[in-house]
Design brief:
It is built from four helices and 17 strands. It is an alpha+beta fold and 317 residues long. Strand 11 and strand 12 form a beta hairpin.
């Protein structure tokens, strides 16, 4: 893939994909589907062997984090007044707070070293409770090769591994990636790779088709003085380009979500304004995925945005 910006009358304010002239990456039908639905499912975007290499590295990293040792620092930041480590330039692991069936915000930095009553792990409870590894995962091979190979002119705010481990992986509530990978105008595009087969039972990705055109970005994630992330309301909501919605249109109270049960190696592309979520993993199979966002480096990003370095810009790929 290569990427470019297209902010014409029909543009959606997102990075538009284009393929090599002799071998187009996306068909016209796929481009139309993306503009209408806000997402695109591309099976076999990476081979099974490539997915296995990424998965092996993910498990190795979870093991390293859980065992501690050189280069690993364990923080407990649940108490007020304790500074939260910055995720910029490092891999920040977060942990499931409880047992199977718990609700987990992806941005909750609390962690525990005591297994819950339903925890199936008897050897290393920390390894069993890893829920996310970000934001510096893309600096490691083979994630570096996948993330950096085709996007030299673009910026990436938040690469990460989402680990919904068997029987304990928590729910991720409905949200928009554009609130975290924030720019004005909205320009976030998410690349979500399934490293294992995903089903409803193990917490597959669920999307609200077309919501990128009906739901503006109303908040951005900012950094508080102690380093904690906090969502801050925008004075003016930011609509995707091409979203022709009357100013007096009331917010959508509830979206209908479609479950994307996909095979290992599948890539799901989706617009930063699109609402999406995932359920708990109640199965006996893990559901580990790798995702990253790309944004237009020329778009404005306000200071104080959580994943933006002070007086800097999102990391350039």
């Amino acid at each position: 893939f290569a990427a470019g910006i297209a902010y014409g009358p029909n543009g959606l304010g997102v990075l538009h994909l284009r393929g090599d002239c002799l071998n187009p990456a996306l068909t016209p039908a796929q481009c139309t589907a993306f503009k209408t639905d806000g997402y695109l499912v591309i099976p076999d975007a990476i081979t099974s062997d490539e997915a296995d290499k990424l998965l092996k590295e993910a498990h190795h990293l979870m093991k390293r984090v859980s065992e501690g040792g050189e280069g690993i620092i364990r923080h407990t930041v649940s108490a007020k007044g304790e500074d939260v480590p910055s995720p910029i330039g490092r891999i920040l692991a977060t942990f499931e707070p409880g047992a199977s069936g718990s609700t987990l915000s992806e941005l909750d930095h609390s962690c525990t070293n005591k297994p819950g009553p339903d925890d199936k792990s008897t050897s290393n409870p920390f390894e069993r409770r890893v829920s996310r590894l970000g934001c510096g995962v893309h600096k490691l091979r083979p994630f570096h090769l996948l993330t950096h190979s085709a996007f030299q002119p673009l910026n990436s705010p938040s690469p990460g591994l989402i680990a919904k481990l068997a029987g304990i992986g928590g729910e991720i509530v409905p949200h928009q990636d554009g609130c975290v990978s924030f720019t004005d105008p909205p320009s976030a595009l998410t690349f979500w790779y399934a490293l294992e087969d995903t089903t409803l039972d193990n917490g597959c990705l669920c999307v609200a088709a077309g919501s990128h055109l009906t739901e503006p970005i109303r908040q951005r994630l900012v950094k508080q003085e102690d380093g904690r992330p906090k969502f801050e309301d925008l004075t003016t909501p930011l609509w995707a380009r091409g979203a022709q919605v009357p100013a007096d249109t009331p917010p959508v109270k509830e979206y209908k979500y479609q479950a994307l049960e996909v095979k290992k190696g599948t890539l799901v592309l989706f617009h930063g304004n699109m609402m999406h979520k995932s359920g708990t993993n109640r199965s006996e199979k893990n559901r580990i995925s790798y995702n990253f966002n790309v944004v237009d480096g020329s778009a404005d990003c306000l200071d104080g945005t959580y994943l933006k370095p002070a007086n800097g810009e999102y990391e350039r790929l």
